[in-house]
Write a structure and sequence with these properties.
Largest sheet: 4 strands, mixed
Shape: elongated
Distance between the termini: 58 Å
Strand content: 15-25%
Order of helices and strands: HHHHHEEEHHE
Radius of gyration: 21 Å
Strand order of the largest sheet: 3-2-1-4
Number of helices: 7
Number of strands: 4
């Protein structure tokens, strides 16, 4: 027997003011605010956090094209070079690293690794959908990589070549937010490991 959840019933059980607030957050693509609002209003009646996430997902589906989705980070060379030029120090490398959350699952951060001051300056966040769109636009093939890893690798490599610095992505084939970082000596033979 299949256990199906009546999302319409859950939605209608929330007070009208809460429903309006949640739809407002969804229309602004503020998923976590919407989930928190649903969860806080529904948990006394047995609505758990996972159910709150699913209920908000159904509101995204119901509101469809009206949702003002957060725009994808640009991955073209000109835009990335412009962003890198705003880094607070000399760019020493371009690096792609995995990150993740409960909303987007795994995604890739494209970073300018700077010296003087030593920092990671975020250039782009490459979600699954961002990778798909970037690869479609360029008609590139992801090969064996997930779209977001393939798009980040392609964009990061092009930017690094443009800037004359190394590109580093320790784990393009497998999401790993603890993979070795370039600054920690994982950047290749010209970047020895630090003790």
């Amino acid at each position: 027997m299949t256990n199906t959840i009546d999302w319409t019933g859950w939605w209608e059980s929330l007070p009208e003011g809460i429903r309006r607030q949640v739809d407002g957050y969804v229309l602004q693509d503020r998923r976590m605010y919407a989930v928190r609002t649903v969860w806080q209003a529904g948990r006394a009646h047995g609505l758990g956090l996972n159910e709150a996430q699913e209920l908000v997902h159904t509101r995204y589906e119901a509101l469809g094209d009206r949702v003002a989705l957060t725009p994808d980070s640009p991955l073209d060379l000109e835009s990335l070079a412009a962003r890198a030029s705003g880094a607070p120090g000399r760019v020493a490398a371009i690096e792609a690293v995995w990150d993740g959350d409960t909303v987007h699952d795994w995604f890739v951060l494209l970073l300018a690794v700077t010296e003087d001051p030593p920092t990671d300056y975020e250039l782009a966040t490459v979600y699954w959908r961002t990778g798909l769109r970037a690869l479609e636009d360029s008609e590139a093939d992801a090969g064996a990589l997930d779209p977001h890893a393939a798009a980040a690798t392609r964009a990061g490599t092009a930017l690094a070549e443009h800037l004359g610095v190394p590109f580093h992505f320790a784990s393009p084939g497998t999401p790993d937010d603890e993979a070795p970082r370039w600054r920690d000596g994982a950047g290749g033979p010209d970047r020895p490991a630090t003790p």
